[in-house]
Specification:
- Helices cover 76% and strands 0% of the residues.
- The chain is mainly alpha-helical.
- It is elongated and about 65 Å long.
- It starts with a helix and ends with a helix.
């Protein structure tokens, strides 16, 4: 078999392994998935009228706030899901299975790639589930064209890939699963200080740069523009640039740690 064929075969094996782990131990994925779902229900049904009235400066319209909120929660779902990837990678690194894989005739990149592909697939499934909850409570995107829907799906997939590589790196440098979970908390925390819940111009002036100059905000604004027809502006290019930068950083970081000689 050629090197490429061996790499594909071994990566497929590692992908099946990770998907089987996710199926047999779904509690971590479900717990992380509950965070964006609960925030969605909380902000819509508890704060929805107040938030929509404050944003519009007029009467309350919960439907408008649902439309505003769902794109941000979809990106937050990805951040929550990849925390499980960091924990899974950390378990592999600390429980000895990686050392065993190193001694076997396995393509060196297959282990990491299997984790990455598995995580991206789980992220997309989680996004679909949260999106279904959003549709069930009133989210609609009637003006988006087929091309815009495809672009939105591509952005979500690319963003999931970027955050997954970062999560893999976090998992590799963590001494245990608890540390990996803590190290990956910024992937959940950053959406909370982005434009997920309120527009940036409604935030205090000193806080606006924190919310604006981070990866989630341009991705959220681009997704809103694709699904709701709002102005995208320069956010589309910024979102792609963030995804490219995070993917490259996470890939090089993960590869360097994985290739490091064990102590």
């Amino acid at each position: 078999m050629s090197t490429l064929a061996l790499a594909v075969r071994d990566t497929s094996t590692m992908l099946r392994r990770n998907l089987l782990h996710a199926r047999r131990y779904p509690s971590l994925t479900l717990n992380l998935l509950l965070t964006p779902v609960m925030l969605l229900l909380l902000f819509v049904y508890i704060f929805g009228d107040v938030m929509s009235a404050g944003m519009s400066g007029g009467g309350a319209d919960r439907a408008d706030y649902i439309a505003y909120l769902v794109p941000g929660l979809l990106l937050m779902t990805i951040g929550s899901t990849v925390v499980g990837t960091a924990v899974s990678v950390s378990n592999d690194m600390t429980e000895g299975i990686i050392a065993r894989f190193r001694s076997m005739a396995i393509h060196r990149g297959a282990v990491i790639t299997g984790h990455v592909i598995s995580s991206v697939l789980q992220s997309i499934v989680s996004v679909v589930l949260v999106g279904a909850v959003g549709v069930a409570i009133g989210f609609r995107s009637t003006d988006a064209t087929t091309l815009e829907w495809l672009a939105a799906f591509g952005l979500l997939t690319f963003f999931a890939l970027a955050l997954t590589w970062i999560a893999v790196g976090m998992g590799m440098v963590s001494p245990n699963a608890e540390a990996a979970s803590n190290n990956a908390l910024p992937l959940i925390f950053l959406p909370l200080i982005s434009s997920t819940f309120v527009p940036i111009d409604a935030m205090p002036g000193w806080f606006q740069p924190i919310a604006e100059y981070q990866p989630f905000t341009p991705a959220i604004e681009t997704l809103r523009g694709l699904l709701l027809g709002t102005e995208i502006g320069h956010n589309g290019w910024l979102a792609v640039a963030w995804c490219l930068a995070l993917t490259a950083l996470g890939y090089r970081w993960s590869k360097a740690v994985y290739n490091r000689d064990p102590k």
